[in-house]
Amino acid sequence: MRFNRIWTLLGAGAMSAALITPQPSAAEPYPADAAPTTPVPTTPLPTTPAPTTPVPTTSAPATPGPVASEPVPVDPKPVDCSAVKCVALTFDDGPSTYTPKLLTMLEQHHARATFFVVGYNTSRFPKALSRMVRDGFEIGTHTQSHPDLRRLSPSRIRAQLRGPIDDILAAGQPAVTLFRPPYGATNAKVTKIAKELGLAQILWSVDPWDWAVHNSRIVADRILSHVGRGSIVLVHDIHPTTVAAMPKVIKTLQKRGYHLVTVSELLGPELKAGRKYFRQ
Length: 280
Ligand SMILES: [Zn+2]
Description:
single chain, alpha/beta, three-stranded parallel β-sheet, binds zinc ion
């Protein structure tokens, strides 16, 4: 992906400094324009215009993969995250050819998760999207084509936020109330439009930089060494190495007593449109 190449150029120093940083609680709004784990704000943004055509997300074939085996339903019992330890795994930039395998894996472990999808992939993988809704996962918008929204006009921001929403509704989710800004890049202009559209801004507190390392062991180790009660973990279901890291992550977290839940379960029903959330 183009932004991956850009970040690769930043070098190891920037990467290690930005890997995991302490996060404010949800009650302490992050400084304006600051992304939680700073992949973007402390470094120059791309100088070329935002892409106007779909960006290929992986080198995988454009056709969906084989149909996954029959899913095991996730635990239908609601979880009260004010009473028990919870973590929310969130998967960005998909769906992809690897998503059905991930869904099966999550279901086999009775784990729920949230998917922040992009419009150029929801149109390619409608079956994966429908399965997410059917099997109890949660879906939010991650825009149509993954631009830095801060650089766009209000009308283009609005169109980007709405990008995948029709596909999510068509898949059967009754409403879309969650939004993740690409690169964590948001500002007052983006926040105002998110609020208008009824979307809470979901950032994160643990980022293993899975898109940069492409190594399952490192991704799992980084998550497991930084995660805690109430964490929101950012990973991407467009990378096979990330999907392959999940069994170890899920099993270890469950052994530690964590419940793996959706963002709405973690944060509760009182999410405020426009507000930024980094963790429970
Ligand atoms: Zn993304």
